[in-house]
Amino acid sequence: MNDAYNKSVRKNSIQIKIGFLMIFAVVLLSATCYLSYRNLSSIVSSVQFELKPDLRLLSIREISMDLEKAENSVRIFSITGDQTDIQPYYSIISGIDDKVDYLRSECLNDSILLEQTDNISRLIEENIYIWNELLTLSKDDKVVEYLKSLSYQLDSVSENTGKRGILRRVFKRNQKTLFDGQEIINDLNMIVRQDSMTKDEMKTQEAMLARNSNEIKEKFYDLITKMENEVMEVTKAKASEASQIADKIRDLKLGLVEATQIMVLSGDDLFEQELQRLVTELKQKFQDSAPSNDPVVSATRRMYRQVGWEPTKYRPSSEALIRRLIQGKGLYRINNLVDYGNLISARFHIPMGLYDLDAVQGNICVDIGSEGESYEGITKPKISAGGKIILRDDGGVFGNPTADSKRTSITEKTNHILAIFFISSTIDNDYAHHTIESLAQSYNRFTTAKISTGIIRL
Q: Can you give the pTM of this predicted structure?
């Protein structure tokens, strides 16, 4: 009986262990798939049109709202004398330099907006100067001490960094005011000790400062409005341009193959067999007809013409490879990754670019090249990008369906790649998936990591 019981326990124990192992395997597989999905999703989400909200407009409006809050804080405190009412002012003026510096960096490529930003900086300086004068008239020790401590902090920052922003200039103003030659005492301790100043004199002083503040505020908001209008016009122009680009490449979808920890080799024994088989297939297929008559090749050529790109003059890379092979010219041997990319591109007749992802700077954008735009090719020193479907990143143009760039090309140091197939939307999705999965299968022998694939429609 005990033996039967022990056998039953062992049997149940083994079943439980097997069950736990199966659960663990499912969890591990799910985690792997999720991480793979996350990895590819980050690539897919970065391939986008070059149309972003104009951050300059947001910065301008944020500065405008901050100054309005600062003025309200000063006005309310002058009535209530409550320290909590002046806290928003302290917070806003402490961060105003960073916000103006950010706006200036966003306007570096626009000389008009850059000049206007400098004008805004000077007007903000005048306003903060006046607000500080109004606050010192309150003779509130805590306010005076805060302004003094802020001045000391700015002195310390300036000594360490050499930076001299708005607040630094405010606290270093000389004793002679800019308004009508009127003398206003700048020394904060002196203002606290000015017991001889009568209430009437203080009211007159406050009125004069308020009037000057209003004049500056009017100039400031006029300038802000002008900048907003200019930025809006630029944004509208970009939106119109983006709409035209989207209309031109509406027939394009991208097939993606992304791989990490991949080995770059000088050659591969199986490649020659694959290539010879492909050459035989292509010669038989196009024995009595030109490649341009093939439905897939024809769809790619139509996609080129959609953007005003003549495919006879600038052949898609896949078509150029097909023609080389049926003419007996073979393929240039570069390395295993490039060679198999060319092989799959020729086999499925879809142009493809192969890129070292570590050499890509920032997001990848699908765009139409501007007139006069160019980039350094792998075999040519200069490739024109004007009017063509292109890929660009923060470093500029780095590829199109006809030729890739030297900057993002595959080298012996490459270990993270992205292949992009430029697929006509009229091509069946099953065919497109078969294309990218075929490349992924070819690359599987050169990496132990998961290879991710996907298709996105622009």
A: 0.56
